[in-house]
Amino acid sequence: MLLLLSILDIAAGISLLLRATGIVAQFFIVIHSVKGVWSVITSASNGYYLDILGWLDIATGIVFYMYMHNIFILSSLGYIMLVKGIISLS
Fold first, then answer.
1. What does 6-59 look like in DSSP terms, one character per residue?
2. Which of 36, 76, 79, 83 has the fewest CB atoms below 10 angstroms from its CB?
3. What tens digit of pLDDT does each residue of 27-71 get?
4. How many Å separate Cα 83 from the centre of its chain?
5. Measured on CA atoms in the order 5, 3, 14, 74, is the torsion positive or negative?
6. How many angstroms separate the CA atoms of 9 and 86, rounded?
7. 72: phi > 0 → left, psi -120 to 50 → alpha, else beta; which?
8. Which of 10, 47, 2, 41 minimizes the C-alpha distance to 28?
9. Residue 1 has what pLDDT?
């Protein structure tokens, strides 16, 4: 499961750098929003309230949502998602 999530992070990073829109952006909006909210909620239930990686996933979902509405900001977030995915693979 961790391998799949890492691959999704790498794909999201590449898509952010390429400023993907359409069905690709819609897919990553859903995946990263759900993954981020799940991560933040489960971390908070364990007493860890500063889940940086969960908030990063939520931010990725928000940026893809903005891409769908032709607001192209924070494409450098793609580099951060690439690093996150590569680190998660190791």
1. HHHHHHHHHHHHTT--THHHHHHHHHHHHHHHHHHHHHHHTT----HHHHHHHH
2. 76
3. 999 999 999 999 999 999 999 988 999 999 999 999 999 998 988
4. 12
5. positive
6. 8
7. beta
8. 10
9. 80
